[in-house]
């Protein structure tokens, strides 16, 4: 058996957080001294969701809602190419590409150890899994692998206790378990009857300088100060609710607004707005790094703002998103959560990140220690069982 460590996660989704967390996890394992590659599992359903402009299984109401995105097909095509170029350049993949759960059976003894995670890979309601049979969770639950198994920061997100019971037998077979959110760790611990560590999102395993050293950030194309608005809202919400608020923000601050709305498109027909829909992962990092401030409803938008020490505002109307609340509370920045864009002040204040980054460093060290210890323990146990 090779001494290589395998990793499986959402590495090929056209989602900034998914691709960047995959890269960060792989880089961290390499820094621990292990050879590693990501299993190039690209389920057909995921391909349909991210590569086709309209998801084949989405309800009719979503299809109608998403029709405005047809107006920006060229930008979406460029975005896709940039994602694939980024994956090809930065992520070490397995030689083969796999589409169906049973395809992975050929890898049952390929790796010394498998790591599953991060992202919502054990959430049946995630984009890749919501419309398909439960067997499509097996690749991420490592049902096909015979060796030691570790989870890193895998999130069940909105899974109910009844739904989690369906995957509990596979989870109990893992040598070590961890979760990204504290409440998720508690839920999984109760489910499996075992300790479940709380670890940081992989994007925090690397600080801003490490991200710049790892990814060759492209030159920022926006002149002067700008606010970066990054949202995962759909067209109806963006056009009816968000755009009026952004126009008011532009008028009262005199600042340009750069917009990334992957699920909504956006036609820049208004002065002072810059459409950044075609951004790939590298362009996204550059936009965050050079922004005067960031406004986002995305957890990873928030985390990269923190990593690059940029002033930010996190949108959460009811302050109920556990991912945002738990990490911001942990590092003392929950005051940066606001209900709407209208609550952004006219003057973009700075943030003293000193104490916050000290908390992040401790959390990062704890999470890396978990990975190191989990790998060493699992490999040692497998030697004894051999």
Describe this structure in words.
- This protein has helices at 16-31, 44-51, 60-65, 73-90, 161-171, 182-192, 208-214, 235-253, 281-290, 299-307, 322-330, 354-385; strands at 5-8, 36-41, 93-98, 113-116, 149-151, 178-179, 197-198, 226-230, 256-260, 273-275, 293-296, 312-315, 337-338.
- The chain has 386 residues and is an alpha/beta fold.
- It has 2 domains: 5-206 and 362-385, Rossmann fold (3-Layer(aba) Sandwich); 211-351, 3-Layer(aba) Sandwich (Rossmann fold).
- Strand 1, helix 1 (16-31) and strand 2 form a beta-alpha-beta unit.
- The longest helix has 32 residues, at 354-385.
- The N and C termini lie close together (12 Å).
- The model has no long low-confidence stretch (mean pLDDT 91).
Give the topology.
Layout: E1 5-8, H1 16-31, E2 36-41, H2 44-51, H3 60-65, H4 73-90, E3 93-98, E4 113-116, E5 149-151, H5 161-171, E6 178-179, H6 182-192, E7 197-198, H7 208-214, E8 226-230, H8 235-253, E9 256-260, E10 273-275, H9 281-290, E11 293-296, H10 299-307, E12 312-315, H11 322-330, E13 337-338, H12 354-385
Parallel strand pairs: 1-2, 1-4, 2-3, 4-5, 6-7, 8-9, 8-11, 9-10, 11-12, 12-13
Helix pairs in contact: 5-6
| Number of helices in the DSSP assignment | 12
**Poorly predicted residue ranges:** none
> Radius of gyration over alpha carbons?
21 Å
Largest sheet features: 6 strands, parallel
pLDDT averaged residue by residue: 91
Give helix % range: 40-55%
Provide the number of structural domains: 2
Structural class determined from secondary elements: alpha/beta
CATH top level of the largest domain is Alpha Beta
The CATH architecture assignment of the largest domain turns out to be 3-Layer(aba) Sandwich
């Amino acid at each position: 058996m090779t001494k290589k460590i395998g990793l499986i996660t959402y590495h090929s989704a056209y989602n900034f957080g998914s691709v960047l967390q995959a890269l960060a996890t792989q880089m961290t394992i390499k820094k621990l001294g292990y050879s590693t590659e990501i299993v190039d599992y690209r389920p057909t359903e995921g391909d349909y969701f991210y590569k086709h402009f309209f998801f084949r299984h989405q309800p009719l109401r979503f299809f109608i809602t998403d029709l405005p995105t047809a107006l920006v097909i060229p930008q979406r095509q460029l975005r896709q190419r940039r994602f694939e170029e980024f994956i090809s350049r930065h992520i070490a993949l397995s030689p083969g590409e796999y589409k169906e759960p049973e395809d992975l059976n050929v890898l049952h003894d390929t790796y010394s150890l498998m790591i599953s995670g991060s992202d919502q890979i054990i959430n049946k309601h995630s984009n890749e899994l919501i419309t398909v049979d439960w067997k499509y969770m097996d690749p991420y639950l490592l049902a096909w692998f015979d060796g030691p198994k570790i989870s890193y920061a895998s999130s069940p997100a909105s899974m109910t206790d009844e739904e989690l019971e369906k995957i509990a037998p596979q989870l109990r077979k893992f040598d070590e378990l961890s979760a990204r959110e504290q409440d998720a760790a508690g839920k999984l611990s109760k489910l499996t009857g075992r300790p479940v560590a709380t670890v940081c999102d992989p994007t925090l395993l690397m600080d801003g300088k490490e991200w710049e050293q790892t990814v060759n950030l492209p030159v920022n194309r926006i002149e002067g100060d700008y606010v970066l608005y990054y949202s995962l809202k759909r067209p109806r919400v963006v056009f009816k609710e968000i755009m009026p608020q952004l126009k008011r923000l532009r008028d009262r601050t005199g600042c340009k607004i750069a917009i990334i709305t992957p699920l909504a498109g956006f036609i820049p027909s208004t002065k002072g707005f810059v459409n950044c829909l075609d951004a790939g992962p590298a362009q996204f990092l550059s936009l965050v790094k050079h922004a005067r401030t960031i406004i986002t409803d995305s957890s990873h938008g928030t985390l990269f703002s923190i990593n690059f020490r940029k002033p930010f505002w996190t949108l959460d109307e009811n302050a109920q998103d556990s991912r945002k609340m738990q990490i911001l509370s942990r590092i003392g920045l929950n005051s940066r959560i606001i209900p709407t864009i209208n609550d952004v002040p006219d003057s973009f204040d700075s943030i003293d990140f000193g104490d916050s980054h000290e908390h992040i460093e401790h959390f990062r060290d704890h999470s890396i220690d978990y990975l190191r210890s989990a790998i060493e323990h699992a490999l040692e146990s497998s030697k004894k069982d051999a």
